[in-house]
From TrEMBL:
<feature type="domain" description="Sodium/calcium exchanger membrane region">
    <location>
        <begin position="183"/>
        <end position="323"/>
    </location>
</feature>
<feature type="transmembrane region" description="Helical">
    <location>
        <begin position="217"/>
        <end position="240"/>
    </location>
</feature>
<keyword id="KW-1133">Transmembrane helix</keyword>
<feature type="domain" description="Sodium/calcium exchanger membrane region">
    <location>
        <begin position="6"/>
        <end position="144"/>
    </location>
</feature>
<dbReference type="InterPro" id="IPR044880">
    <property type="entry name" value="NCX_ion-bd_dom_sf"/>
</dbReference>
<protein>
    <submittedName>
        <fullName>Sodium:calcium antiporter</fullName>
    </submittedName>
</protein>
<feature type="transmembrane region" description="Helical">
    <location>
        <begin position="128"/>
        <end position="145"/>
    </location>
</feature>
<dbReference type="GO" id="GO:0005262">
    <property type="term" value="F:calcium channel activity"/>
</dbReference>
<feature type="transmembrane region" description="Helical">
    <location>
        <begin position="252"/>
        <end position="272"/>
    </location>
</feature>
<dbReference type="Pfam" id="PF01699">
    <property type="entry name" value="Na_Ca_ex"/>
</dbReference>
<feature type="transmembrane region" description="Helical">
    <location>
        <begin position="278"/>
        <end position="299"/>
    </location>
</feature>
<dbReference type="GO" id="GO:0006874">
    <property type="term" value="P:intracellular calcium ion homeostasis"/>
</dbReference>
<dbReference type="InterPro" id="IPR004837">
    <property type="entry name" value="NaCa_Exmemb"/>
</dbReference>
<feature type="transmembrane region" description="Helical">
    <location>
        <begin position="78"/>
        <end position="96"/>
    </location>
</feature>
<dbReference type="GO" id="GO:0008273">
    <property type="term" value="F:calcium, potassium:sodium antiporter activity"/>
</dbReference>
<keyword id="KW-0812">Transmembrane</keyword>
<dbReference type="InterPro" id="IPR004481">
    <property type="entry name" value="K/Na/Ca-exchanger"/>
</dbReference>
Amino acid sequence: MVETWLPLIAGLVLLVAGGELLVRGAVQAAERLGVSPLVIGLTLVGFGTSMPELVTSVQAGLSGSPGIAYGNIVGSNIANILLIGGISALICPVVVSEATLRRDAALMLGVAALFAALAFTLPMGRLFGTACVAGLVVYIVTVLRQERRSAKRGRLHDESAALPLADPNLEAAPRHAGLVAPLLLALAGLGLVVIGGALLVDGAVALARAFGIGETVIGLTIVAVGTSMPELVTSVIAALKRQGDVAFGNIVGSNIYNILGIGGTTALIAPGTVPSEIVTFDAPLMVGVSALLVVFAATARRIDRWEGLSLTAGYGVYLYVLWP
């Protein structure tokens, strides 16, 4: 029994530790090169915190486990909204900026609906993957341009605001310092993420077989929550520091990355079909909870504690319905 759980737990630990080292090293290297915090937040931090999901989904797709590959993506988005969003709002009501609501939250809902519709009608092939990755590039470029204009007017809003919250020492990295140590740190983190992803997929498959549980259920729950740990930590710290907009932006941004970046890359490297149980239940649910989050955020531009409680309770109901 222990042998069944050990690879899964070890994989989760390596993913979280590796993601932390990867983000820390990449951010320090970028700062020492004089790259702006805005670019760091939208690229390095965004990709770094999504690296566990990316590696896990790609490796699962290559291993012939689409239930884990796409269950991880859809399950992470559901967990980000119901679990992480709910906990963040319970800690401190989440204030939402108009720019985030109109641009990022609307895009999150749109790509969720597009994914659900395409998964219902088509296999996830390389054309879909190319379109998703191209869409992510367009999104990043658009946000960078808009945020640079906002920054000049003193209204900087981006995911990099979570950086000093997660580690206050990162913003103080001296630019004249060497690059060798940060690059080695980032490479070490990447190596841990790759190893952890492989262990997580192997452990999840073994667990599913040992207990007679479908791989899709494992992917939607244990794997999805495990790979979402960086987002959970960042959002909770932001909520504790009364930076609710950072928590909301982290959740919304992660969901966009998950579908466009991770879903697109997975389809490019390992084309496949989304399992029918995800197509008929979990993907539509992802669209529904995305819409619910937008509605909550649009009312008075904040997510109150009672709404956070309803989101958290909703995740409990989801697990109850899903788990055999």
